[in-house]
What does this fold into?
Amino acid sequence: MTQPTHRPLPLQQVQLQDSFWSDYTELVRTTVIPYQWEALNDRVPGAEPSHAIRNFRIAAGLEAGAYGGLVFQDSDLAKWLESVGYSLSTHPDPELERIADEAIDLIVAAQQDDGYLNTYYTVKEPGRRWTNLYDCHEMYCAGHMIEAAVAYYRATGKRKLMDAMGRMADHIAEVFGTGPGQLRGYDGHQEIELALVKLYEATGEARFLRLSQFLIDERGREPHFYAEEWKRRGGVSHWSSVPQTQMPDWAYVQAHLPVREQTYAVGHAVRAVYMYAGMADLAAHTGDRALLEACRALWRNMTRKQMYVTGGIGSTVHGEAFTFDYDLPNATNYSETCASIGLIFFASRMLRLEAKSDYADVMERALYNTVLAGIAADGKHYFYVNPMEVWPEASARNPGRRHVKAVRQAWYGCACCPPNVARLLASLGEYVYSAEGAEGDTLYTHLYISGEARLSLGGGEVRMRQESRLPWSGDVAFTVETDTPQTFALALRIPAWTEGRYTARVNGEAAGAVELREGYAYLRRVWQAGDRVELRLAMPIQRLYAHPQVRSDAGLVALQRGPLVYCLEEADNPAPLAGLSLPAEAEITTRTGLPGLGEAVVLEAAGLADDAADWQEDELYRTAPMPRKTQRLTAVPYALWGNRGGGEMRVWMRS
Amino acid sequence: MTQPTHRPLPLQQVQLQDSFWSDYTELVRTTVIPYQWEALNDRVPGAEPSHAIRNFRIAAGLEAGAYGGLVFQDSDLAKWLESVGYSLSTHPDPELERIADEAIDLIVAAQQDDGYLNTYYTVKEPGRRWTNLYDCHEMYCAGHMIEAAVAYYRATGKRKLMDAMGRMADHIAEVFGTGPGQLRGYDGHQEIELALVKLYEATGEARFLRLSQFLIDERGREPHFYAEEWKRRGGVSHWSSVPQTQMPDWAYVQAHLPVREQTYAVGHAVRAVYMYAGMADLAAHTGDRALLEACRALWRNMTRKQMYVTGGIGSTVHGEAFTFDYDLPNATNYSETCASIGLIFFASRMLRLEAKSDYADVMERALYNTVLAGIAADGKHYFYVNPMEVWPEASARNPGRRHVKAVRQAWYGCACCPPNVARLLASLGEYVYSAEGAEGDTLYTHLYISGEARLSLGGGEVRMRQESRLPWSGDVAFTVETDTPQTFALALRIPAWTEGRYTARVNGEAAGAVELREGYAYLRRVWQAGDRVELRLAMPIQRLYAHPQVRSDAGLVALQRGPLVYCLEEADNPAPLAGLSLPAEAEITTRTGLPGLGEAVVLEAAGLADDAADWQEDELYRTAPMPRKTQRLTAVPYALWGNRGGGEMRVWMRS
It folds into this structure.
């Protein structure tokens, strides 16, 4: 085992207090987590029941009844508990901890004597464990519960759930392996791979890392585990009892090739990025070059050929999946919120392997755009699908666009995205910094979010206070507090959106010859208490154009300022938005104070609109060209769309 | 019963001999009909078996075995036989007639003693007749066989099949009706409604018209027949044995409302237009004003809000259906060839009700574009789906575009479009003319296709010879041959694409004050043998723009010249075609002689192309605008696309 060169800062050491982000993180703490708990307990009026808690009660013998919900319903409780762990790390809350302890008692009560934990198989199909790895998410649920256990342990020091999940991992390692009588299988929905690395990091037990490696190593190998399993099942699936004559395409679960041979992002997008994150974790801990190279290739393909400008991934609803290079349709894409969260996981792991701002740029893009768009300002409504273009009537009446919701929905039957958003936002502090070197002699800042970090740097304890005005302006300041002067480097990410324009001043003076490497500016010096760094990142309004192979965006332009991608909404612009265009020469200005958007900086420009005044109602096609008229355009952050009623929305506009 | 004001000319009276169309009609006669016969007999190497003939042999007790193919497989044989009937009308062929007679003997041998004819229920589910009208196409198959019977009778005078189908119609009239013990049902796939009108026209038996009217009258009424039937079936369907908890939306089969209350084209597009054609037939024969008004409203909605510029209908693959007004996506549309054929049926019936060129304009648009695009130059390959835009890689790798084939396919498992194209082209002569008045004192020309028509006009026999150079030029001449001078009007359609510019000369002199009414120019005079009318229709190259509510076409332009819509193909233009644009000021010129396109007139213009030369491979988005460069654009008739290998295609181009 080797050590990753970078380590993230534990959540307890990063206290965020940010005028932009705290709105969201507070929402998670004060609204989302309590609301989710009610939902898990089937106490939200009008909402479909979750069944999650009840399933555990039935499995624990505390209640009679039938299993309810989807096969992976356990993971909802796990994700909630993980959020609780993160929340308690930064905001101790005895009452919440008491509720969580009780939930953990319940979970452990539902665990079987041999360590197995899964309420679906315990309640509904006892004796059928591990017979359908491809469909049934047993390890996926275990993975989420492991993540919850580690988060809760790190927050509270309580090991009960972590020990229980260690027993589950040991049980898995008994059933699965290369030995006689063992299954050489792996889960259809990757998740446990990265979770086991967390369990290894928390416990120091190398066997958990080895189990993760086994699962990664076996995936896609011949003879193909899923092919054998499919034949054993007689071609039926969990979702349909009608035997299929053709085997599924294993690319859907990224098992079409051994993972080290994969270079092209395919299949279900969430599974893909969870797996890539696990691969990067393993590469960091084992020094496995082939895994690292596969991660790099997959990263490059995904972010350079298959990613929306909002950091969304997954071009099709069919299988919630990638399609192929440059296929980025705007009105029918999937871009699941969870997939962008997984992309953030992957990016943050790649940053531990190599400090290249590209990873952080993408992480920031996904975070500030798709992930934020996924959650409503009230914290109770969510998008799973994050389209580039919405026409509400088409969402309602064209079946090919039915998956694209025009307004955020309350908690869904398959509640994957809301708790995923919650756990990401509750742990946001983990993504802001990392430290490099055994003695932590470089502190990296990947994201600009106000707050305070405490860590050991250059041999001593340092407190670094960040004050950021992102995303509305590019002014950031850092103040060092330390008892004794310390030598270390502060490595500041220079985002691509600055177009290389920034200034860094230390204690009011130009920082001088700053080393700029792979997108980070390194300020290395002996830092004294009270030293202050002022970073001014230029935040030009950017017109973005897509690669010419992206047919969907040909002739179109998108707007970005700082980390935020903008969009047109019908609330501010006349429909149909397709009739609007932004001429190349139009000056774009900023303004604030748009009603309903708080302090958001919005963009305005003198655009053009198709002038439909002289069209006859009954004229579908005509030879007279469309007259144009001037039209003020207002673009708002994509992160905030859909918070002011329904209506059309468009990211890419005619240029 | 009343008489329609217009009557089409029987096929025997219209002999087409046209340099453009004869290629296609000869292909049908010499290639398609023989090829289809082989297919029906399961003798096409490599093709999925049709089972159609074999099913009839089994039903007739001539062969043992199991039913094969879809529930409506019988209709394939019917459509073939209908084509044969049309072909024999204009091209007697004793050998083909012998084969057809044998097929008819087989069909009649498969008929049951009570008149019932359907091989699926006879062979596979005896005793289950009429238990699933919604799914199972029993009347649909009967309707096609009635059409075949009438066509064959008109061509040969042989009544055997027509009498048999009369017995089937009588059997249906026993089972269905408003009397005690009768079912108040109607078929899930409309077709028999228009077929029964043909049977009435051929036999003069009013009971067939009344049966058609019953089926139209009952449709969509409450208590809802399909709802009752669905409950009787226990919610299962022909396609799935899993009981559904929710009833289907009857709009899919246009049974959501009584037909006279329908004003909005919805549901499966082929079923819709077949029904509308039947409604128009009934309105013509019964003088039913409410039906006529419904037809007008549905026509207006469909052609003014939901029709592609190629005359295609059906915006979505889901249910092969209409969606809603102005929803005309270019890359995912369905625009089934059969739906445009049905649109032609509907248009030609509306022309019998009222001589308005709008109906003929649409008929011509659908015929010259979607229907022709549906068939390959070899006559053996077909498109079911007629997209506005094709990216072959997306068809292969994006599941939402999988229905859009980039190359025409050989005969499909569900062989609905190829035999439908065949029967339309074999009967093309029926669509060219109609005559008005009991004595036929006006001869209407709806389409400009060379050939000769014989009919009674103004009390005497007239032969009208048409020489047309469409679609390549707008020069058309008519020569009258008659034994004695006759007084009648020649009503010439002035297509909308002339933009009102045309000249008409009679015997070399300007025609003088020509009455122009509803798009037809009426030349009324005493016609002598040898009189010659020269019509010059302007054929400007038209730039077409779509209604501003059509979001998919915003900022785009399409090209049309005469009846032909044009498109860009990768064979002539650099991919990606999305990178090309046609500036408003670019002059467009015509040329001929493009290799592989025969005498087709193609369009050329100095366009622009995105210049991708300086894009980095790894750059998905960038701030530098795309440079443009000049690029010669070549547009070819949409009717001919896909005959020179695969590749991209686009109808709507950037403007």
